[in-house]
Write a structure and sequence with these properties.
180 residues, Rna Polymerase Sigma Factor, Chain: A, 2 domains, globular
Length: 180
């Protein structure tokens, strides 16, 4: 089934189309949830809620070509993951602004499996992880992130900088541990 056929089928409540949508998107949706939540049990719960939401709100979806269904689902999963974290986690965000400190050169990721990078991201402290995911994967501005999380723009920028630094340390440690 093509994405367009899946969307049309789900809009008509066709169970095969719903299954095809799940099969097509479950892996990437789970990866998105893991980046935010880390724990598989919480990810599975969020994933179930997200697919129910997607199936019931498919009439609101406007198909814009291949990839638009995946992008829509990713947005649903990210938003639901953020809401889950807000409900279940006391998030603390640093208020000081570190932006006067120059950002280091990004580390070389070659040779590091994607699942290891995802594990590193999932292990970031909650506030760092939420800002990092929204900035890097959802391409949101610090203003948009600040609004969605109820923090100041400077806090968003500071959390991102700290997340990048912590990830760089994890990457360097991984590379040291796996040098031949």
């Amino acid at each position: 089934m093509t994405e367009q056929e899946i969307v049309n089928g789900v809009k008509n409540r066709d169970r095969k189309a719903m299954r095809a949508m799940y099969d097509l998107l479950a892996g990437s949706a789970m990866a998105t949830a893991r980046r935010y939540l880390g724990e598989d049990d919480r990810c599975r719960d969020v994933l179930q809620d997200c697919f129910l939401k997607a199936f019931t709100r498919i009439s609101d979806f406007d198909y814009r070509g291949d990839g638009s269904l995946r992008a829509w689902m990713t947005r649903i999963v990210a938003n639901e993951s953020i809401n889950q974290l807000k409900r279940q986690t006391k998030m603390t965000f640093l208020e000081e602004n570190d932006m006067d400190i120059a950002d280091e050169e990004p580390p070389n990721l070659s040779g590091i499996p994607p699942e290891e990078i995802n594990r590193m991201i999932a292990s970031l402290p909650t506030g760092y992880r939420m800002v990092f995911n929204q900035y890097v994967f959802e391409h949101k501005s610090h203003k948009e992130i600040a609004q969605s999380l109820g923090i100041k723009e400077n806090s968003s920028a500071s959390q991102l900088l700290r997340a990048k630094r912590l990830l760089a340390k994890m990457i360097h440690q991984y590379q040291q541990d796996h040098d031949d």
